[in-house]
Design brief:
Elements (H helix, E strand, L loop, with lengths): L9 E4 L3 E6 L2 E6 L24 E3 L2 E3 L4 E2 L8 E5 L2 E5 L24 E3 L2 E3 L4 E4 L2 E9 L2 E6 L12 E2 L8 E2 L7 E3 L6 E3 L3 E2 L6 E5 L5 E5 L24 E3 L2 E3 L4 E3 L7 E3 L4
Antiparallel strand pairs: 1-2, 2-3, 4-5, 6-7, 7-8, 9-10, 11-12, 12-13, 14-15, 16-17, 18-19, 19-20, 21-22, 23-24
C-alpha cells in the first residue's frame, strides 16, 4: 500500500485482518479474538474484538455491575459482572411477609398493624388524632411515625412565621421600603425625594422599591462667552459675558485688556 514495513512488524488492516512483514512478504490473517465471558458487548467503533466490560443480554447493553430483571422473568433478578450475566429468584418466606412483594413473586400476605385501638392495612398512611403534623405508615405489622417534612425557606429567620394550625413556617412579605439609605454619607431620603449628590449636573431620585436612580443633565445652550455660575450645571448665556476672567452684564462697555485705546461692549445675542 505504498508504506514500507520493517521485518517482523505487525499491524491491523481494515476488516480486522492482522498482517506481518516476513522475508519481504506481507502475510495477513483474520484477527483471532479470545472471549472469556458469556455475554460480551459488540466490538467498539474501530475495534475488532467484543469487550467484556459490560454485558449484552436479550439485545440490551448492560453496564458493569448493573442489576436488572429480564422481560419475562417475573421476580428473577440478574446482575452483570465481568461480561457474565447471573440470574436468581428471591426466596419467599412462609406465611406472612414482612414487606410487600411484587405480583406473582411470593404467595404471602403482609401483616396488618394495630395502633391506638385501630387496625391499618399494610402500606396505609395516616395521621395521629389531633396532630396533622405527624404522618404514620404501616409496614409489615409495625407503625412508623415521622414529622411532616417542611420545605427549605430562603428568607431570614426574622421573616419566618408559623400560623395557627400550620405544621411548617412560611416567609412573611418583607416590609415595603420607606426611603433610600446611602452608605457613603449615612443620609436617608424619603421615597420620591430628588437631590444632587454633589455634581450640579447630576440629579438622583429615591425609587419606591428603595433603590436610587440618577441621571445627568445635558446642556444644549451654547454661546461664545458663556458665564459659569457656581452651583449651576449649565452655563448661562443670557446673564452677560465673560472676558479675560471677568464677568460683564449685557450692554456694559469696558476697555480692552489688550489695547487701552479700544472700547468693548457686552452684547447678549
Amino acid at each position: 500500500r505504498g508504506i514500507p514495513r520493517e521485518p517482523g512488524t505487525r499491524w491491523t488492516e481494515p476488516g480486522c485482518r492482522s498482517c506481518t512483514c516476513q522475508g519481504g512478504r506481507v502475510l495477513c490473517d483474520a484477527v483471532s479474538c479470545s472471549i472469556p465471558c458469556s455475554h460480551p458487548l459488540p466490538a467498539p467503533a474501530g475495534g475488532c474484538c467484543p469487550t467484556c466490560t459490560g454485558c449484552l443480554h436479550e439485545g440490551v447493553a448492560r453496564a458493569e455491575g448493573d442489576v436488572f430483571s429480564p422481560s419475562d422473568g417475573n421476580c428473577t433478578v440478574c446482575v452483570c459482572l465481568a461480561g457474565n450475566v447471573s440470574c436468581f429468584s428471591p426466596e419467599c418466606p412462609p406465611g406472612s411477609c414482612p414487606s410487600p412483594s411484587p405480583v406473582d413473586c411470593c404467595s404471602c400476605t403482609p401483616e396488618k398493624c394495630s395502633f391506638q385501638g385501630r387496625t391499618y392495612a399494610h402500606g396505609a398512611r395516616f395521621s395521629l388524632d389531633g396532630d396533622d403534623c405527624t404522618t404514620c405508615v404501616c409496614q409489615g405489622g409495625e407503625v412508623e411515625c415521622s414529622f411532616t417534612p417542611c420545605p427549605v425557606l430562603d428568607c431570614p429567620q426574622h421573616q419566618r412565621h408559623l400560623g395557627p394550625g400550620q405544621c411548617c413556617s412560611t416567609c412573611r412579605d418583607p416590609p415595603a421600603p420607606t426611603g433610600c439609605f446611602l452608605d457613603d454619607n449615612g443620609m436617608e431620603f424619603p421615597v420620591g425625594q430628588i437631590w444632587s449628590p454633589g455634581d450640579p449636573c447630576e440629579l438622583c431620585i429615591c425609587q419606591a422599591d428603595g433603590s436610587v436612580s440618577c441621571q445627568r443633565t445635558d446642556c444644549v445652550e451654547t454661546c461664545p462667552y458663556p458665564i459659569h455660575i457656581p452651583g449651576q450645571c449649565c452655563p448661562d448665556c443670557s446673564a452677560g459675558c465673560t472676558y479675560m476672567g471677568r464677568i460683564f452684564s449685557n450692554n456694559e462697555t469696558f476697555p480692552s485688556a489688550l489695547d487701552p485705546c479700544l472700547s468693548c461692549i457686552c452684547l447678549v445675542r
